[in-house]
Amino acid sequence: MADDLLQASAWKALERHADDLSGSHLRDLLDQPGRFAALSRQHDHCLLDFSRNRLTADTLRLLLALASERDVPRRVQALFAGEVVNATENRPAQHMALRAPASPPLLVNGADIRLEIEVERERMLALADAIGSGEYRGASGARIRHVVNIGIGGSDLGLVMAIEALHEYRTPDLAIHYISNVDGTQLADVLARVPAAETLFIVCSKTFVTWETALNANAARTWFIGQLGEAAVTRHFVAVSVNAAAMDQFGIALEHRFRMWDWVGGRYSLWSSIGLAIAIAVGSEHFRALLAGGHALDEHFRTAPLADNLPVLMALVAVWNQNLQGTTSQAILPYVGRLHRFAAYLQQLEMESNGKGVTRDGQPVRWSTGTVIWGEPGNNGQHSFFQLLHQGTASFAADFIAPVEGSSPYADQHLVGLANLLAQAEAFARGYTLEAAQAELTARGKSPAEVARLAPHKVHPGNHPSNILLLRRLDPHSLGFLIALYEQKVFVQSCLWGINPFDQWGVELGKGMAVGMHDALQSPSGAGLPPIGHVVRQWAKDS
Ligand code: F6P
């Protein structure tokens, strides 16, 4: 098989090297002089410390050789050049163009997409600012005070995450609401809260055929017509999509449609008009700063040598941990509450991109790909799931993320959070030995029998790998940088694994089956339902 990771000579060298390293513990590695300098990199206001992974400078050398052997530099070039990197959908992936300043023409299918991007961006930002300033009013002349984003997946997660992260930059007196789930609870809650005359709905859907979004948007429209009448719809509903016909059908006015392009994947789309809710929430200036931060990362990614390239290093370390150290999931642990939706956002980015079982040429992979991503703000996690991380049997890797400057006026509190971050990263790495536990208990006056009984329960095996990502502060620019850093890290991982990160066929099977289930649930016989489906059908009838 041509694209066989396991046959790469750098891979074989890494396998041998992993064997050689298998006896060493992070607590010993960490005490080697010069380790932090050798295994950390800084770019602008972002510092990556990857010294708490079970690797050495030799490992890094071999990993960099793997990046070269797996053609990472050429693939990065192809990505930026607009080549068809998504072969199963015959598309380039040009989300970087959305955050690039005006520059030389960029052709997709012979058309210069830069002009279109700029036109749409300016239209979108003009609307955002007009809403923020109160210049744009509802049909009755009322100021818009509520914005409801109706979308799911990439048309929800990125914008929610960013709006939460940039709370300090929010336009006052403008509430943003989200409806993504199809179960009706968000819909009911939001519609109960918003006064129609002061509300703008954004129907946010690349395809405009996503079932959940279509149902929610139509329900919101029906509710709205009941409140203010059909004539007001055009003033209160805007949409973002590639699907002009569906927007026609929904009754979205031409001036309230914002274009998307098929060369932007949903999970990479917050930089486009899909980010309209972000632009409304924080204003055009901050939205532009977010784009600039993303572009700064792209420039770093495109031009920095592999050995200093943050996304490349993060990807190499992640692949080392997963494929050669046996970690089975990646915890995302931000030490700032504003990033509380970051793990959820990364779940789609990483798991929808790299959750693939075949190589680019359709051969089954013989190595593990994709990563189970999960996480919570770290300080909360300490008082919940960290017990398992410290003393359970799971094998995981973690990313600690924190701005050094806090987002609140409570600087002392933020410093306590940072102290916890440092402590947890050290504790994951170093652990706590049986000898240390015995010595502690003895020093506390416990009898030898008590020491023997209790000491094993106090052992922390340690040796758990983690990165620390420090930002100076969490602002629109650094958030853009951070998001793009993970996007490009995911891309590099896909190159190493030899898979296509830009398609998502795996979401289709269940979607199709759900249509059949829905029909069967409503049919007289329930034919086609699995046994439990008949219970659902019966209970639904009874309720
Ligand atoms: O079902 C998965 C998915 O296609 C994602 O890739 C996408 O972000 C989401 O659904 C929403 O799609 P759309 O923006 O077209 O409604």
Write structural notes for this entry.
With 543 residues, the chain is of the alpha/beta class. It is built from 24 helices and 13 strands. It has helices spanning 9-21, 26-30, 35-38, 57-69, 72-80, 95-98, 113-133, 157-165, 185-193, 211-228, 233-236, 244-250, 276-282, 284-303, 310-324, 342-354, 378-382, 386-391, 411-430, 434-443, 448-458, 476-497, 508-522, 531-542, and strands at 40-43, 46-49, 107-108, 111-112, 146-150, 175-179, 199-204, 237-241, 257-259, 329-334, 373-375, 396-403, 466-471. It has a 6-stranded mixed beta sheet, sandwiched between helices. β1 (40-43) and β2 form a beta hairpin. The chain is globular and about 80 Å long.
Characteristics:
13 strands; alpha/beta; binds 6-O-phosphono-beta-D-fructofuranose; five-stranded parallel beta sheet; globular; single chain; six-stranded mixed beta sheet; 543 residues; 24 helices
Short description:
The protein has about 550 residues and is of the alpha/beta class.
Structural class: alpha/beta
Shape: globular
Rg from Cα: 25 Å
Helical percentage: 40-55%
Spell out the blueprint of helices and strands.
Layout: H1 9-21, H2 26-30, H3 35-38, E1 40-43, E2 46-49, H4 57-69, H5 72-80, H6 95-98, E3 107-108, E4 111-112, H7 113-133, E5 146-150, H8 157-165, E6 175-179, H9 185-193, E7 199-204, H10 211-228, H11 233-236, E8 237-241, H12 244-250, E9 257-259, H13 276-282, H14 284-303, H15 310-324, E10 329-334, H16 342-354, E11 373-375, H17 378-382, H18 386-391, E12 396-403, H19 411-430, H20 434-443, H21 448-458, E13 466-471, H22 476-497, H23 508-522, H24 531-542
Parallel strand pairs: 5-6, 5-7, 7-8, 8-9, 10-11, 10-12, 12-13
Antiparallel strand pairs: 1-2, 2-13, 3-4
Helix pairs in contact: 1-4, 4-15, 7-13, 8-13, 8-16, 13-14, 14-22, 15-22, 16-22, 20-21
